[in-house]
Amino acid sequence: TLRGTVSDQSGPLPYATINIQNTKSKTISGLDGSFSISLPAGDYKISISMVGYNAKDTTISIINNKVSLLGNIKLNSANDLQQVLVKGMYSAGERKAVAMRRNATAIMDVASADAIGKLPDINAAEAVQRIAGVSIDRDQGEGRYVTVRGTPSQWSSTTINGDRMPAAKTSGDLLGNRTVPMDILPAELIQYIQVVKAITPEYEGDAIGGSINFITRTSPEKRTFRIMGAVPYAERPNDQFGYNGSVLYGDRLLNNKLGFLVFGSINQRTYGTDDYEVIYGNQLHNVTTLDVRNYQGTRINKTLNASLDYSLAPGTKFYARGYYTELLDNERNRKTMHYFDRVTNNAVLRWNVVDYYFKNYGGETGIESALSSKLSMNARLAWYKSWAGYKG
């Protein structure tokens, strides 16, 4: 049996490897640096090594039925390790997202289109929930409203390209305040998502929960052409298939002075849910009305986006961009209302068919100019509008 300890300048060295050369025998040192290994009689060459230390070799003779003590083996730290270099690859969009996060005056989280596209998110609400501290409220299984840091959704400001995104409502089921339904914006429309959870003076003061800014797609650095399609399947309500499709084309012309991008998408999906509501009477455990509901619906989202920019001079750029998106939610609601009355004891079956219709569109134009390394000028004119109502 061979016994010994391994240490460095600061004390015992755990998990060092003790290898008996030219054999299959090896062991590691314990937390106190000690080790023990059973070997037949003979002469052995032993190597003691550990990552970050210079290995040490020694020889010893093992005698039958005797314990051989190797003593304390002291390893010296390896001084030839100058650096540890880890290399990775970022896409252009992810590099810019990192730069936005680093240069922001507030604590900001940024998600790029490259990161968004890796996940099967249908709309902007589904995409923004990937950021820490952000959660969503769902409608018929899909994300619609966004909450930041657990605050009510109306306590956060929502902007698009830096301008306040207008809100609209159709009925009492939709929040009639600053809350913006984000399921109208498809995830493919967005190039960057910026979330600030602790606002600074340059942000609007009513963003108690935080500020969410969506940046729409702009002209690419080189020619880009992409067609995407998918066929989603929904088990409810009736084992139906949908369709998703998008086309994107962008390029730079006139010696890269003129850049443009056009994008269009259409998404169709079905849903089905069951729900119930109970109305209690004045007495304990007294149910007066039981409302059993079945929801079936189809949602169709159509989007167009265009962007144009022109380099007037080095450091000076004119740009214009705009988008149009609409969401048609065809909802069929079957209600069976049971009235528990001693006299009538009746039930009512009612069908509701509603086409909720949402529109959101707008654009902006402006000039960006870097006058010097420390001074820049930006001028912008923007207009956005939201509309909600019933179709038909």
Strand content: over 45%
Briefly, what CATH class of the largest domain? Mainly Beta
Order of helix and strand elements from N to C terminus: EEEEEEEEHEHHEEEEEEEEEEEEEEE
Q: How many domains, as an integer?
A: 2
Mean pLDDT: 85
Shape: extended
Any idea what the CATH architecture of the largest domain is? Answer: Beta Complex
Structural class from helices and strands?
mainly beta
Largest sheet: 7 strands, antiparallel
Report the CATH topology name of the largest domain. Ferric Hydroxamate Uptake Protein, Chain A, domain 1
Number of strands: 24
Tell me the name of the CATH homologous superfamily of the largest domain: TonB-dependent receptor, plug domain
Distance linking N and C termini? 91 Å
Query: Which stretches are poorly predicted, pLDDT < 50 over at least 5 residues?
Result: 171-175
Q: Strand sequence of the main sheet, in spatial order?
A: 16-19-20-21-22-23-24
**Rg of Cα set:** 33 Å
**Count of helical stretches:** 3
Helical residues, percent: under 10%
What's the structural blueprint in terms of helices and strands?
Elements: E1 2-8, E2 11-12, E3 17-20, E4 26-28, E5 34-37, E6 42-49, E7 56-62, E8 68-74, H1 92-103, E9 107-112, H2 113-116, H3 124-128, E10 134-139, E11 142-148, E12 156-160, E13 163-164, E14 190-198, E15 210-216, E16 224-230, E17 233-234, E18 240-241, E19 243-253, E20 258-280, E21 287-313, E22 316-339, E23 347-370, E24 376-390
Parallel strand pairs: 1-8, 12-15
Antiparallel strand pairs: 1-2, 1-5, 3-4, 3-6, 6-7, 9-14, 10-11, 12-13, 14-15, 16-19, 17-18, 19-20, 20-21, 21-22, 22-23, 23-24
